[in-house]
Amino acid sequence: MKEIKQVCVYCASSTQIDRLYLEATEVLAKELVKHNITVVFGGGSVGLMGKLADVVLSEGGRIIGIMPQFMRDVEWAHKQVKEFHFVGDMHERKKKFLDGTDALITLPGGCGTLEELLEAITLKRLGLFTKPIIIVNINHYYDPLIDMLEKCISENFMSEQHRQMWTVIEDTAQIIEAIQSSPAWEIGAIQTARV
Q1: Which CATH class for the 6-192 domain?
Q2: Contact 192/163 with Cβ under 8 angstroms?
Q3: Average pLDDT taken over every residue of the chain
Q4: Is residue 98 predicted with pLDDT exceeding 70?
Q5: Rounded to whole angstroms, how far apart are CA atoms 83 and 162?
Q6: Residues 30-55 pLDDT 10s
Q7: pTM exceeds 0.85 for this model
Q8: Between 20 and 30 A from 54 (CA), which of 12, 137, 192, 194?
Q9: What pLDDT was estimated at residue 192?
Q10: DSSP string for residues in 137-155
Q11: Which residues of 42-81 are buried (b: 16+ CB within 10 A; e: fewer)?
Q12: Cα–Cα distance between 171 and 137 in angstroms, integer?
């Protein structure tokens, strides 16, 4: 059984989203705190980021924000989160997200969330990141992305084994089981990265 001490959660900062995404984020946060898992996130105070932090804190859990200084300057940082790493830019932020994480969880989000997720999948393909990547497909939000990844495989831009780089779930209550049952991935994956 995989030990899970810390996870990174990619998610949206939009305040205009459907309530069901906020409710699913609340369930996720409670599951992580219940299992004494430290949460790393983008540090924002609104949207799914804000909900994640609010619930982790209210449940007595530990959460760490990682944010570029320019976002702090415009006061995007969650004021109740006590542990913060302020970094120079977005590239440094993404690197820090993955340092020491035992799994990566992606909730629905916009272009920033998509970019972070796809970079993590690319790093995993190269064996530079080997931890579970869980795509939480709430309300079928990620169906088009999953279809695109499947097209990459069917058109031989990726191989069948690359499908094992991510796990898709629809219910955030399944998160621990999804992390535990994710296929193992090795640093040596770079040997099979090319198709």
Answers
A1: alpha beta
A2: no
A3: 95
A4: yes
A5: 35
A6: 999 999 999 999 999 999 999 999 99
A7: yes
A8: 137
A9: 78
A10: -GGGTTHHHHHHHHHHHHT
A11: bbbbebbbbbbbbbbbeeebbbbbbbbeebeeeebbbeeb
A12: 8
